[in-house]
């Protein structure tokens, strides 16, 4: 389970990483392609595949929402969740692991994601303590670079392209359906949270985004870690924003500027403040340069 403590002043009140009033949260289901959906509630978007083999989900949000998630899935399948695939270790995507694991689901993740789930982690940017999961909540199947699952008539390729949002990110593509779940490497809430202390890196995130863009075409449907269903062009625009801000910060570093001076130059100018602001994202970009 996660233990939430005081939230940082660097984030907006509408925080995607915490939700106190779970009773008020409704789970909505959005159709992506035949037999493929994504669920919105609180936390990361949940990918859902239902079919003859059973039920497969990508991420599972917060533990208090598990029963609501099961009720939403029951509208599309009478089967229990058989597989849970974690895109990374952050609690707003994995806090339901213990519930689904205890109910018999097989949890899958990249090696580094599982390792971090075995440890207590302090998430500095959001000022939250995430405690290690018990044995039910830990992935039973892990991979280093890639893994392929054949399920519900889909070929699901999961790939790890190196450091990005964290050091354990996984991108999942439903090949025949041309659908990609990106986890938090791609989000729609504005400036992204990059967890530098836990292996994240801005340059790495940009590189991973280019890998995903290369996997996509104009017909690909993208389920981001947070936000609405997206397109390849949305990802192109997103990575362009990251590159422009990165270059502004790195030019300052090369000119001998301090973090305070770089922040004062407003590297995010021209882009809206969202989950993170100029101060917090400038620090992420600055720290990434030295990682």
Low-confidence stretches: 1-15
- Sheet with most strands: strand arrangement: 2-3-4-5-6-7-10
Structural class, from secondary structure content?
Answer: alpha/beta
Number of helices: 8
Helicity level, as a percent range? Answer: 25-40%
CATH class: Alpha Beta
- Radius of gyration (CA) equals 18 Å
What do we call the CATH topology? Metallo-beta-lactamase, Chain A
Q: How does this structure look, described?
A:
This protein is α/β, with parallel strands linked by helices and 291 residues long. It has a single domain, classed as Metallo-beta-lactamase, Chain A (4-Layer Sandwich), CATH 3.60.15. The chain is built from 8 helices and 15 strands. The strands form 3 sheets. The chain has a 7-stranded mixed β-sheet. The chain has a 5-stranded mixed β-sheet with strand order 11-12-13-14-15, with no helix packed on it. Strand 11 and strand 12 (154-159) form a beta hairpin. Helix 5 runs antiparallel to helix 6 (232-254) and helix 6 packs across helix 8. The radius of gyration is 18 Å and the shape is globular.
